[in-house]
Amino acid sequence: xxxxxxxxxxxxxxxxxxxxxxxxxxxxxxxxxxxxxxxxxxxxxxxxxxxxxxxxxxxxxxxxxxxxxxxxxxxxxxxxxxxxxxxxxxxxxxxxxxxxxxxxxxxxxxxxxxxxxxxxxxxxxxxxxxxxxxxxxxxxxxxxxxxxxxxxxxxxxxxxxxxxxxxxxxxxxxxxxxxxxxxxxxxxxxxxxxxxx
Length: 197
Description:
By secondary structure, the protein is mainly alpha-helical. 48% of the residues lie in helices and 6% in strands. The chain is built from six helices and three strands; from the N terminus they run H-H-E-H-E-H-H-E-H. The protein has helices at residues 9-23, 37-42, 76-90, 106-111, 121-138, 163-196; strands spanning 66-67, 95-100, 152-155. A three-stranded parallel β-sheet has the order 1-2-3. The longest helix has 34 residues, at 163-196. The chain is flat and about 75 Å long. The N and C termini lie far apart (55 Å). The mean pLDDT is 83.
């Protein structure tokens, strides 16, 4: 929840109370923003609520837990470079929204009223699709899963390619890599204990 207008402290308290009543124990707490989905599912926590005025509530995440830089461009090359840079820099400590969306200009929007004269949002999404697909595919390989892998990705017309499958694969790969890392740490600890004996 962000971009509140004319909200008093009392209205914030009332809305926060309603969120708590509605979602209760399903609200995700006690984890860092970069935790795996599996950790939340294991804790039976399925709702992450980011509330920009979250003071006074331990179950709501504040605005410092997420970044969502807006590329604000019609240039697909710029968008792709922006995503590479912003994802690498931002994903390590908090949730990060990768906005794979070309932003229409006023001319683009007005042009939709003139037949055969402009691009639609679908046309823009088709320009972005191959770049986004390639970018997502990179993170489905275990060697590329790292702290800078995407955690929130938005795009227009996600249903025109295998977006959901790719995102699911990234999460499966991330989980498998985290299990391997956990097992490796346990083995190292055992070796250390044996070397002390």
